[in-house]
Please model this.
Amino acid sequence: MLAMKAMLAQAWARLAPAQQVPKLMGPDNGADDMSAEHLDGILSAGGAEAMVAATYHDYWDSCIDHQNASTLAAAGLALNVTCLDARMAATVSKFAPTTDKHQVGLWLTEGALHASSGVDGLTNVFVSSLFYAHALGQLARTGVGLFSRQTLLGGDYELINRTTGAPNPVLVAFLPLTTSIDSMSTPLGLGDWQRDY
Model:
């Protein structure tokens, strides 16, 4: 991590000498695959000096009734909020003491209701926007500084339908949010879609 920081500082000095050198983020391992000890080792070995945030990715497959996912999703009942909240709390409590100790942020940089490209009829329909809204609130409440939803294009959890090019319901549901926070930042450059949807 320190070697990467040094390389970045050297390149930055040539490209933008008047600007502050940005910090790194990482390691972006799966929440179940990365131990708190591993993260502590990275941060103790110079990572905290080089990083703005420790990152992980997480999916909530275990909170879905796979047998009845399509039927439940159509009825809006596919979300087990108690399970979602327990999973989020357990993951944050696993990593937050380490990130707090080293004074770096904790970011969820890849996540969705279901891994492995999602589930057609569950992660690309409106119920997925309910999950996303809930996750945004809960993660912010627990101190996670950023949540990047998986993914713009690809799989069945995409924000834009790869076949038609139209926004999937979760993106349409959040267009008003992007408009309301436009004065702070715009998460996506949506162009004509903001007028059309």
Q: What stands out?
A: The longest strand covers residues 51-59. The beta strands are 24-30, 51-59, 105-112, 146-149.
